[in-house]
Amino acid sequence: MLEFNLDGKLNNTFDAGDAYQRVAGSDTTSYGLDQSNDPLTPGAINPLSEDELLSPWDEAGQASNAEGIKRNGALPQGHNAQATQRGVNPGKDSGNHNTTDALTGTVLEADRQLPAAEVTLDAAIDTQKQFEQSAGNPKGKTSDPITGTSHQSQAGFAYIPIGETLSADWVSDELISYLGERQEVNDLLAEERFNRDQTGGKETFYNFTTGSGYSANEGSGYDITDSRSNAAELGTVAYRDDKNVLGTVGYTSNGYRDRNDYFSFYAGKSGTYDLSLSLLSANVGLALYNESGSLMSYSNKSGTQDESISTFLNEGWYTSLVYSHNSAASNNNGATAFDLNISRQADIFEQDIETWIDDSSVKNAALNSIKYDNDFGRNDMVGILKSAGDYDSVSSTELTDLRQIHNMFSGTMRADIAGLSKKVIFGDDSNAWYTGYDSIRNSLGNLEAGTSTQNLNLLIGKHMLGTDRPMIHSNSSGNVAGSYTQAGGSLFMDGVSFTDIDQGQTGDCYLLAPLASTAHEKPSIIRDMFEDNGDGTYSVRFYTNGQADYVTVDNMMATDSNGRYMYADDGAAGKQQVADNNELWVALAEKAYAQLNESGRLGQEESTNRYGRQWNEGISWGWADATTTHITGLNTTQERLVESTWWNPFSWDAGLTKNELINLVNGDNIVTIDGFNGNASTDDDGDGSIDWKSTSSTNIGSAVQGHVYAIVGYNAATQRFNIQNPWGNFDLSLTYNQLRNLGGTVNYSNT
Which of 58, 113, 162, 678 has the most CB atoms lying inside 10 A of its own CB? Predict the structure, then answer.
């Protein structure tokens, strides 16, 4: 009975319970190698091939487990993935899925719920200012509700289909975050899926031949490791995650010689793997098989020389074999201890990280992120960003390392992940503030050396987790008019359609009409706008300054006291219940546009993260031609309509003729019309809206001044254009002359 310690020296005592134990089986046929089958012998049969054996567990009717494996330490953690996912030992489950808050030490349940909106302030709000604006003079001077700066309003187009009087909106100059908002982000970042701080290293196993009561019989149904079909599983091998076996081979037990020891392992990622065999005192060989049992490589040096194999392996299962040449059972002349080590070499990505990243925490997180693939996914980048706040603040070295990682690997990332993490690492104008779910703006700031861990977490939440939600407008009493509620439903239902759009309590028809026309003419652009992150958040793409510009939004929606959508949704008259099974893409796009507005890149007069109700407040009022470009990335043109005559069929004035407009609408151009300026009339048709009439006093329906519509079709038989109202009702059917007489301006994409 023998046991060797980690130094390869023989211990004086041995507990038989630490050995692989015999399993009751049938025959005692021995499989293995002997000296006569040395693969180096000229003309010899390949000794490393064998018939596929039935599992001894199946034959013996025993439970399939590896009893008796003595491990040195716990298994190192990898990606938190199911057993069937890549890089994870199939069939293994960690069992405990709870996580611990890194800041507070609180144990969090796996199915964590967001904290309630009703929380306590961590300090009093210092000051309050009243935002005053003249509703009757939209082009006059206004006061910025955040800074108090006066500015000149510009004409824009929006119409809020709400019969409520607009009131002053109270906000504060110095806003202190609710504790609940900070805790929300901290709790999210404490989830296991974002952890990239796992330690690597060598995992050691023991495998010794025992004496009386145990067997070296290599027949089917006997000791584990004694046949390839019954190999001991070592788990996943990855860079910095070596597997090590200290054992003996060649010893005799109960009249049988232990000639073969098989150990299977999972190659976690394609690359070069090294297998080495050392501490030998007798002639022993090393072989490697693939999952199907075919020999891939072997090392069989004479005497007691170390054996080694270095070869490229794809991800998958493999089996290593340690075999003794001595076959005589009468003595132990061929017996030896051995030290088997299996490791993976660093690939070029891992070498770059080892070379260029200095901070140990950031380096460890980056290496763990690509342990099983070379893809820096969203959860990986969140984990890497989070690692820079491990000691209460971000050091200059950590900030440099984060920038280095982005510079080296952003080209390999999904575009939205690269863009969003860039805003965290390199800064963005929107980083000046954090709103969260309480509609109070807190000062934040760009990431720099010395930034606190809490502010780093808020930046991650803002750009990667969608927790920085737009401000909800205030009611006539100066209180926030709603709260955020988790929405039910799916991103898309039954395709993408302009009929999915229903405007709410913010004046953003200039956004919703181009969305409607894009959904009608180029639905693939709408589908490609969204990246479903699979956790209730979505990356949403717009285009600003000629570049893709991404925002992360979650499925928390602004809700009134009756649980209904306050802003855009997929319904018609009467807002939908937020918790119902609704189509979400319109509400998410609007929410993302409000969040992106804080960057100042949308051209809005007020660059705040808010929906807004009043003229030029947040995303309330804007320009449809600019928004069409923001949605599609396409160049747009804005033109008036003109009337051609027999002496001037193409018109001397710049503008769209009837045929040109028909061609645009019948093509796949995105076409909207805004700025009706006809003469006001009474409610002639009794629908509750002021009707607008052409100069010929012909009633044309409810054409609303200062509103934007999508032109979604042309009926050649009636010579009328089909015009969709973002309200979800009051659509129009107008002739070219009616459109022209109303003074509408057409916005269209150039392709």
Answer: 678
